């Protein structure tokens, strides 16, 4: 089963996963709201200096983590 954020390599190519989800801050906010409903208190975003070199897989970490965290902070308690 694919994760909503396309965590599995190539998951973004599946019909039920939006191909642009990895560059949509709202996608991360939705995941954070889901985690919050499950009583999770933390969110970790790994950061890296570049995109993946293999074009068969979606680019990793395409958004600056501070953009994602600002969106998540505004959408959660």
Descriptive account of the structure:
This protein is an all-alpha fold and 77 residues long. It has helices at residues 25-37, 65-75. It has one domain. The chain starts with 24 loop residues before the first helix and ends with a helix.
Keywords:
mainly alpha; 2 helices; globular; oxidoreductase activity, acting on paired donors, with incorporation or reduction of molecular oxygen; Luciferase-like_sf
What is the element layout, followed by pairings?
Elements: H1 25-37, H2 65-75
Helix pairs in contact: 1-2
What's a concise summary of this model?
One of its GO terms (molecular function) is oxidoreductase activity, acting on paired donors, with incorporation or reduction of molecular oxygen. The chain has helices spanning 25-37, 65-75.
Task: Supply the number of helical segments.
Answer: 2
Low-confidence stretches: none
**Main beta sheet strand tally, sense and closure:** none
Global morphology: globular
Decide which structural class fits the backbone: mainly alpha
GO molecular function: oxidoreductase activity, acting on paired donors, with incorporation or reduction of molecular oxygen
InterPro entries: Luciferase-like_sf
